[in-house]
Structures are given as C-alpha cells and as structure tokens.
Amino acid sequence: MFERYEGGEKALLVHVFFPQESDEEDLREFEVLVSSAQIDILSVLTTSRKAPHAKYFVGLGKAQEIADAVKEHSASVILFNHSLSPAQERNLEKLCECRVVDRTGLILDIFAQRARTHEGKLQVELAQLRHLSTRLVRGWTHLERQKGGIGLRGPGETQLETDRRLLRNRIQLILGRLEKVEKQRDQGRQSRAKADIPTISLVGYTNAGKSTLFNAITDANVYAADQLFATLDPTLRRIQVDDVGEVVLADTVGFIRHLPHDLIAAFKATLQETREAELLLHVIDAADPNLNDNIHAVHEVLAEIEAFDIPSLMVMNKIDLLENFEPRIDRDDEGKPIRVWLSAQNKQGIELLFVALKELLARQIKVCQLILPAHLARLRSRFYQLNAVESEIIDEDGSFNLQIRIPMVEWNRLCKQEHDLVYLVKDTQTH
C-alpha cells in the first residue's frame, strides 16, 4: 500500500531553525538518527522561520530549492527533522516528485528495523498504523469511486474507505494481542509484589549506555551498540543486593527529544515497568556536552508516562571518556546517595552503584546465630545461596553453627517454608 524507504538510500535532510528552540543540537542528533537508519546523507538544507508555513512547512522559495536539490543530487527521499501534517507531506511530494518522511516516520522505521521480539514488532506496527492512518489519502489519490456494471459493482465505498476500515480492524487486532501481553506483564509484577521483590528500572536518553550497564551488572548478553535505539525490547534479570536480597532489574527503551506520541502509546506495556518500579536508575552520558538538555528530555517523557515522582538515582556513565576522573558517590545534605559516577564499559565503579542501591533499598535486617542439625544441610545451602552466611563453625556432632545476616523479607519467607527454623535460633537481633 505504501512505498517505505529502506536502509542504504540517499537522502536530503531539511531542518528549520525556530527562535524558541535550541536547534543546533537537534540537527546534530537528527544526523546521527539518519545514520542509525543506514541512510546516506547527500546534503543538509536549513532555513529560519518564525512559524511553519501552512502549505509546505518551509517557505515557497525554500520548497522550490529543495525540489531543485532533489534533481541535482538524485535523492530518493527527503527527511524533515520536524513533524509534518499529512497535507504538508503531500504538497511537498507533489512539488519535489520525491518521497517525504518526517521525524516521526524516521523514528518509527528505525524501531521497525530494531524490534526483535513478537511484542516489540506488534508495538511498532501499532505505532506505524496509527501514524499512517492519517496519511492514507497519499496512497490512493489515483483511484476514483468504484464504478457500477457487471463485475464492477462493489460495496459502494471508495478504495480509501475500504482501506481505512481494514486499517481499523488491524489496529483492533493488535490492541487485543497487546492487551494479552500487558496482562502477562501485570501477573509477573503482581507475583513480584507478593514475594516483596523490588523492581529497579533503567531509564535515560538513547545511547547513554543503559544496556552496557545492564550487562555489567547482570552478566546478561543484551544487545548493546553505539547507536540510537539499540534496545527496544525490555529485558528483566534478577540480581542480589546486600541487605536487600533479590531485586529485579529492567532494561527499557531509550528516550529522545520529541518522542512520537504514537510510540509512547504503543509501548504502554513496556513503559509500565518504569511506572511500577520502586527506584529509577537514570543513566546519563557524563561525556555528552548537552547532558543537561538530555536530562530535561528524559524528565519530560517520565512526566508524560506518569513516572516522574518515582525515586531516582543518577548514574553518570562513561567517565572513562573524561580526563582523570575516578568513580565516586555524590550525596545530599542527609548523606543519601544522589549520583554515582562510573564507567559501564570498563566496569569501573560498579561496586559503588551496589553500595548506593543497598543504602536506598535496604530494609530491616535480621542478624542471628543458628544451629542447624546435619540433616538440614539443604537449609545451610539455601543460606549460602542468599549470601546470608557471615561465619560458620561445624560442631563435633556434625551440626552447623551459622552466623546469619539476612533481610527480614527473606527470613520471613524461609520461616513459612521451614516451620522449625524459628526454634533453631540461638541468639538474634534486628536492625
């Protein structure tokens, strides 16, 4: 139905400078975005305006200049670093005789290239269909109302109306499938809540190093690359934090300035992991000269998905790109960790991150001395799995004299499973 551009094509980039925006960084980021889509940049055309032109977004003279540049460079697509209305896209395509794709369309296509799981592909398709539903006229301007006569009588609607109906049906089908995925995620979250297992969600600007940090912490093998939107599909892993016990760590999609609303709506189930987290790790590229703008962009998206009020810890990543910079923890006036400086790539400062997590998530700790008979060796093994054994002495009768330090949550869970455990405690304290 639609001709979509594919990676490897040649494009003209168009950017309009507006007085109220910091556009220089936007333009550089857009060029990186285009390169991420494996598209060759032939030329970058810029102009300044106080407000977008109603017909072409750019002025009539600049629109003609773009059309001439298309012929001169034999470009196959024009990429706008702005959101265009369907009418503006059609008018530009008619004038330039070339495909026109706006910023939202480009991001959606990058997402389509990167989605790996069934859920991710459904989410991207939903976002694409919602974006394209307003642009159907462009695909069918050559068709007229269906004619009468033998073999030509139809349902009495134009091909455009037929396609809109089919599109609505497809959107409803995908929404139904995503609803099932969301229910599965909800069940997982409810199970973790019942087991009192906290969730930490990694958030941050795209290409800040979230997946590299995730791999460094969990020894997972999540795809990580120096490109925008390397991660689309959320990944969850369990980790052990001293005095806290098991914690679930979630790696999520990166944010970007002007993230399309269709994408935020489509990735609702994925972003729910962020909304329901107990703590957000806001990963920041410490070497990026525009880190303040990136932080602001992330805060905007967090506010949009109603996750702005969740406690967060800033993780200043990539300190290996800074001169003579050592890992450290920054604290507020009360001594509470607010920033951790580290390098996920070189695994410098990871232990400091665990110290900060321990302080922010620590709950009541039970410290006690246990005497386990030899036939309860399996229970001794369980304590070792939980990293709860501080010291051990094996008595002459084969019993195990253990000094235990364990989160109260884990202790209560064990007591439910082993009713005799409370009678084996010799000396205890809680703090």
TrEMBL record:
InterPro entries, A to Z: EFG_III/V, G_HFLX_dom, GTP-bd, GTP-bd_M, GTPase_HflX, GTPase_HflX_N, GTPase_HflX_N_sf, P-loop_NTPase
Ligand binding (Mg(2+)): 211, 231
Required cofactor(s): Mg(2+)
Entry GO CC: cytoplasm
Record GO terms (molecular function): GTP binding; GTPase activity; guanosine tetraphosphate binding; metal ion binding; ribosome binding
Hflx-type G domain mapped to chain residues: 198-365
Positions with a binding annotation for GTP: 204-211, 229-233, 251-254, 317-320, 343-345
Subcellular location: Cytoplasm
Top-level taxon of the source organism: Bacteria
Record keywords: Cytoplasm, GTP-binding, Magnesium, Metal-binding, Nucleotide-binding
Family, per entry: Belongs to the TRAFAC class OBG-HflX-like GTPase superfamily. HflX GTPase family.
HAMAP family linked to this entry: GTPase_HflX
Subunit (UniProt): Monomer. Associates with the 50S ribosomal subunit.
Function of the molecule: GTPase that associates with the 50S ribosomal subunit and may have a role during protein synthesis or ribosome biogenesis.
Name this protein carries in UniProt: GTPase HflX
